[in-house]
């Protein structure tokens, strides 16, 4: 009886090990990137080659309905109470949130991505899209209280923090030398396509 149990257990153990190995391989598979930050090297028809900030070469198919936005620099003082903003933040030494960059959405984009979530710009960074409820001016920057539907955050924006806004763009801006942030998805054939691109104006590197 003992021999029979051992005989039956061996196939079951083998199946379990295969299943665990498959699960582990899936878990370890690198996630598909959702955006690329970099400089356009060339555009050929509906395909553009981008050199990412990390040095990788990325080939992107440009969707026929691509939405292009320009990114322009504005002043910190342009952030007003009531502005709907996106703030990339990292934890500060005092436990607060320090802004890496802030982008002010035009009124037509109010509510875009409202909330707070992990972000991939820097280690431990998060992105919070919210409405400015309070703005306190200090000696070296502003402290913003931003509120979104599930909570609120206090964000410190130093005087040297990049502050930008979106302006209408055009597909013609997707040309060699342009600095971009492109949102992308993987197609069934393994290639990548973008339907939303933010382009820095006047040589600006989009900070988000």
UniProtKB/TrEMBL annotation:
Leader sequence segment: 1-27
Keywords: Signal
Protein name as catalogued: DUF5666 domain-containing protein
Organism annotation: Bradyrhizobium neotropicale
